Amino acid sequence: MKDNLYLAAIGEENSNKLANVLPTRFTQILPKLRASEYDYIIFDMPAVSPMSATPRLASYMDIVLLVLEAEKTGQQLATRATARMRESRANLGAVLNKYRRHVPALLSQES
């Protein structure tokens, strides 16, 4: 399984430099990616910001998962990121990461 796993990532430090170049290059390689033998291709992109390439590339993706870290990602930040992604017409979902229960399982009604 690991033999068929490849990672395409843009680090935060390179995001601003590549923001203008990537959409052009990406549209050139997109047909090759769609014709590949892979069922899923995952792009690990930088945080959503006005300067990042993420909102510009999001419209090319089948789905974009916005990763929110519990107790760290604020509501306003999540709202702004969601708005930017919707402006790009991305099919958007969210993942809440590092969630922990503060109520003991015995007292929780979720069980």
Task: Give the key terms.
single chain; 111 residues; alpha/beta; two-stranded parallel ribbon; 4 strands
Report on this model:
With 111 residues, the protein is α/β, with parallel strands linked by helices. The protein contains 4 helices and 4 strands. It has helices at 12-18, 22-35, 54-58, 75-87, and strands at 8-9, 43-44, 64-69, 92-97. The mean pLDDT is 75.
Task: Give the biggest sheet.
Answer: 2 strands, parallel
Q: What would the principal axes of the Cα set say about the shape?
A: extended
Side by side, the strands of the main sheet go 1-2
Relative strand content: 5-15%
Structural class: alpha/beta
Order of helices and strands: EHHEHEHE
Report the span from N to C terminus. 35 Å
Number of helices: 4
Proportion of helical residues: 25-40%
Low-confidence stretches: none
Average pLDDT, all residues: 75
Report the radius of gyration as a whole number of Å: 17 Å
Give the total of beta strands. 4
